[in-house]
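Changelog entry: the YfhL family 4Fe-4S dicluster ferredoxin record was regenerated in this release. Current contents:
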Amino acid sequence: MVLKISDECICCGACEPECPNDAISQGDPTFVIDPAKCTECKGHFDEPQCVPVCPVDCIHKG
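Regenerated structure tokens:
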């Protein structure tokens, strides 16, 4: 299961540069995670890198 960004996203952009797979991009109206690219950072890190940098805690398993 991949991560998703909820409607609470404030479009701050903090998550985008943290993704090692380039799976996060600006959508309309919020940022989105491409499920084909998201690995939840497995193989790179012990935990998803986007989750701890989100100031509004809007990134969750989908």
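The chain has a mean pLDDT of 96.
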